[in-house]
Design brief:
Aspartate Aminotransferase, domain 2; globular; binds pyridoxal-5'-phosphate; 9 helices; alpha/beta; 360 residues; Aspartate Aminotransferase, domain 1; three-stranded antiparallel β-sheet; 2 domains; 34% helix
Amino acid sequence: MSRIFNFAAGPAVLPDSVLERIRDDLPDWQGRGMSVMEVSHRGKDFVEVAERAEQSFRRLLGIPAGYKVLFMQGGATAQFAAVPLNLAGVGDTACFLNTGQWSIKAIAEARRYVEVEVLTDEQASNYTTVPEATSIKVPGGAAYLHYTPNETIGGVEFPYVPNPGSALLVADMSSTILSRPIDVSQFALIYAGAQKNIGPSGLTVVVVREDLLGRARKLTPTVLDYAAMASAGSMPNTPPTFAWYVAGLVFDWIEAGGGLEAMGQRNAAKAGMLYDYLDTSGFYANPVHPGCRSWMNVPFTLHRSELDKQFLLESRTAGLANLEGHRSVGGMRASLYNAMPVEGVKALIEFMQDFAQRHG
Ligand SMILES: *Cc1c(COP(=O)(O)O)cnc(C)c1O
């Protein structure tokens, strides 16, 4: 294989060993003479894959009893609607913390279904920080507090879990799930699109407290109704079987690598190396406040932005792909998900040093 280091924000890098396993499995999965994509989702073989994936996901996150794990479709974006449809009645209030582009999208979609109250908004900092923990005051009677623990575009990550008061706490963990251990019991609901840290796109994982099932509004589509999904084992219809299978392989890979404790240490080290270099380079900069810099998505700019195109061209030639920043922010962004090896980050820093020397 001639693999490059892929810094894409999502769909994103998968572990080499997982890709090799998929390649080997593909034409003749488990001696069945067909691929996993070609078997019934209701057959014993696939149901086993699905259940195994859920069990290892539960072990990884230490999900306590009393939570359902759902494998859904429609991406995190479908959850922007599913959450209010399931957790709030017409006229109820839902509170949001606005820390960037994905918060903004979640808020816009929620406005179609609930009264939205934006408690904090970091726009004045150009979304380079998170609110003070003590500034978050959720009014009594609010149905839930929604936040985005890691803003994939801005590269801003909460260093704490907000206090929702008497409301339910809901988190869009699309770009941070499985990056380190978390205490699931603090959350009423967690959701994550798979294509960052879990597997291929097309799958969305939802962790929801069981006592919240059965409250969906009548008009909620079945595939977005958590109770209906749970009672059908996430299969009221055909699920994205291939993505589910790959997610299971990724979970196995994380467990074999020491679980979330080990992932967290590795991710902290990877991000730390890159931020240290950015801060001392004199040639590049990261705009995010040091206390809330993302381990997963590192945006950075060149002091001489006229060199952006050259940087992208040369980095690609050096085997470093997809470093272009999001169109709404510009500059560069290096995403350092679980599957990005330490060697990839070292190669990126070496390239950046060399580029700075030649153009500084
Ligand atoms: C990628 C991403 C989304 C959107 O996910 P889709 O699966 O494309 O709907 C939402 N929130 C966050 C934090 C993301 O990183």
